[in-house]
Design goal:
There is one protein chain. Helices cover 45% and strands 11% of the residues. By secondary structure, the protein is of the alpha/beta class. The protein folds into three domains: 13-213, Rossmann fold, CATH 3.40.50; 226-286, no CATH class; 292-375, no CATH class. A hairpin with a 4-residue loop joins strand 7 (343-348) and strand 8. It is globular. The chain starts with 12 loop residues before the first helix and ends in a 5-residue tail after the last helix.
């Protein structure tokens, strides 16, 4: 029987490694990121490992070499260094008014100001952020690493409330825009979230971000590929087959049908939903684990407001511009796609359009069972 401890809900890389949790090595991707660029953005659905990715980057830039023992990073990185890190996590809060976002930013800013001796606590958040970066650089002699997890959480919670969303947009646009004006003091920056709000929105002042959400080299930076399953979970596949009274081949097919199928770039490998996959191996039972963790209220609200014909979802056609942004016309397709309920099924190069559909059986069944009733 497998003795793997599956990291369900574990998002901290240091505790994951120290406590012996199962980990599929993504550090070669991380090495490639940090050595080939400086500013990145990644959009992936919820529970796809974005927070663990940010935590892994944090451990790397803290110079915690011991945590990477036995991983690709140990072989690749020869020059370990420690950098000042500003880690902003917007995930763990309810944002129902502009003050709630300001309070969350202030909480992080106060900690950073105390750490790096920045005396500008009476200024606006973006001014304080600017000064913290400068003070951190001056105090440590090292350029600063900025890691932002779930950058879009306030904006998503404000969908359907134009006034509140505009307030959040203005606050975050000014705050994130600091990264461009402090370029000389930045070693690395990465922002993650579920969605990408358009160029006219949060990122209009931050046009130096490399959006790798639809870049082939990083399709399985988050999520699990079929090859990674067979490289790391062969024993567990056989065990699951025995307990489910199935053949090895039938289990592989069912895993693929239920949890594979996420395509973030056309004509590339499919990516398995890591949350559902690891739960299946933990409990040795197939289930709709990802969908049962909850239906995002913002998606239900947008579907209702847009009066979108849900029958179209299985065969939707759209352009890359639509997939990459959320616009103000209540078109729900970008949000449905970026949230993981649709994926790329095909691409017409001549006309530059994507054919979308449900990624797998879990999402299709879950959508019909859990989401459609909300939108009737």
């Amino acid at each position: 029987m497998s003795n793997k401890i599956y990291p369900i809900g574990v998002q901290n890389f240091e505790s994951l490694r120290q406590d012996g949790y199962f980990y599929i090595d993504k550090t070669e991707f991380i090495y490639r990121l940090v050595k080939s660029g400086r500013y990145y953005f990644l959009s992936r659905p919820r529970r796809f490992g974005k927070s663990l990715l940010i935590s892994t980057l944090e451990a790397y830039f803290q110079g915690k070499k011991e945590l990477f023992e036995g991983l690709a990073m140990e072989r690749l990185e020869k020059d370990w260094s420690q950098y000042p890190i500003l880690h902003l996590d917007l995930n763990a809060r309810q944002y129902d008014r502009p003050e709630s976002l300001l309070e969350e930013l202030n909480k992080h800013l106060e900690i950073w100001e105390q750490t790096y001796g920045s005396p500008y606590g009476d200024r606006k958040p973006e001014e304080r952020f600017y000064q913290v970066i400068r003070c951190a650089y001056k105090k440590t002699g090292q350029r600063v690493v900025v890691l932002v997890d779930e950058y879009d959480k306030p904006l998503l919670q404000a969908i359907g409330n134009a006034e509140l969303q505009e307030a959040y947009r203005n606050i975050l646009k000014a705050f994130y825009g600091v990264l461009k004006s402090t370029d000389g003091h930045i070693q690395f920056a990465m922002l993650t979230g579920v969605t990408k709000f358009g160029k006219i929105s949060v990122f209009s002042d931050l046009n130096n971000l490399d959006d790798i959400s639809m870049r082939e080299p990083y399709v399985n930076l988050c999520g699990i590929s079929e090859q990674e399953i067979h490289d790391n979970l062969e024993e567990e596949i056989h065990e699951l087959a025995e307990l489910q009274n199935m053949t090895y081949e039938d289990v592989c097919v069912k895993l693929k049908v239920y949890y594979d199928g996420y395509h973030f770039v056309e004509n590339t490998i499919g990516v398995y939903n890591p949350f559902s996959l690891l739960n299946t191996f933990k409990y040795n039972k197939f289930g709709n684990y990802w969908f049962e963790t909850g239906t995002p209220s913002y998606l239900v609200m947008l579907l209702k407001q847009s009066h979108y014909d849900l029958e179209r979802m299985a065969n939707e056609v759209t352009s890359s511009d639509i997939l990459n942004s959320i616009y103000e016309d209540l078109n729900p397709i970008p949000l449905i796609y970026q949230s993981g309920y649709l994926t790329i099924k095909g691409y017409d190069e001549e006309f530059g359009v994507y054919r979308l559909g449900f990624p797998n059986r879990e999402v299709e069944e879950g959508f019909i069972k859990y989401l459609m009733p909300y939108c009737q």
